[in-house]
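Proteins fold reproducibly. Next comes an illustrative record:
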Amino acid sequence: HHLGMDLPVGGIGNILPVDQEETLYVGPAGTPFKLAPDSHDQPIFVKEIQQGHLYMLWEEFGSRMSGELEEEVQEQCVSPTKSISRRQVGVILMGIEASAPQRTSIFGDRH
């Protein structure tokens, strides 16, 4: 299962640390914005750029028998009175990326 969420890395409203002709600020969901002087400080979003993305990969491998008893079951030496514990086995991979898939980061890299 692939999951993702756009993040405003750097904090909403903070100035982005890149050399641009105009000052860009961190916007919601990582979409930067600029303030036009004649727009009464209304944000103008720069939708071509996106920064910050949380990526998660979730894999589920089903249930497995606990380690020591698994060998006994394979050898068919388990008595009917012994209990076999089963555990769910899975993994979660998490990472923070510079931009969301198919978007350009503030540094000009395309993901």
Q: What stands out?
A: The helical segments are 67-74. The longest strand covers residues 53-65. Residues 67-74 form the longest helix (8 residues).
